């Protein structure tokens, strides 16, 4: 793992009316790592992802992707740079098939013109076939969803819909992948599968990952570093073992009772 930041967040402030969602957050995602952001409900985890992916605009601070400041870039430009994300609440087109949902992750990047698009020939057809081949041979195979590729997304169980959303994000060929509670609502087997997919994407596809997750077992098992937020402020950051023993983190999650430490 190299020591080069993929994403840098510098002194970030975000508020909604009188509510301070983020207060002076400074952190970074390093190249090649899985970086977890944890904290109690309302800590500001999703707000931080929303600022990075440009769904929110912070009042103060800067965000960099590599050497480029992206603090106020339009959302579609963030995607073009190579940042993809999934959401707490599944954001899929429920009336479309699995394959069509996944393909939508890349269509904004296709370079053919409007006239060839309308007539579906030449460059458009070649791009479409190449995209389909990549999705079917790489993404669908990785996520083990070949059997549901032609099914309508709205008919699928929740755990499979979460897989499809990850597949759509991967179709964007991201350099950085922001995952907002990818294991939420999953059973143990589904959680283990999702953790395995994330590790493969990180290690074999060389995608740096920001992981917001409440499952502390997963966080401690697969993360290289962990950042802990509480009420919009960073209270700890470091290796999983260090963070797990941090007194502020224990208090934030479990109160003052030292016997509760084993539950973190």
Task: Give a structural overview.
Helices cover 38% and strands 23% of the residues. By secondary structure, it is of the alpha/beta class. It has a domain at 5-82 and 174-263: P-loop containing nucleotide triphosphate hydrolases (Rossmann fold). The chain has a six-stranded mixed sheet with strand order 6-7-8-3-9-10, sandwiched between helices. Strands 2-1-4-5 form a four-stranded antiparallel sheet, with helices on one face. Helix 7 (188-203) links the parallel strand 7 (176-180) and strand 8. It is globular.
What are the defining features of this structure?
single chain, 264 residues, alpha/beta, Rossmann fold, six-stranded mixed beta sheet, four-stranded antiparallel beta sheet, 10 helices, globular, disordered C terminus
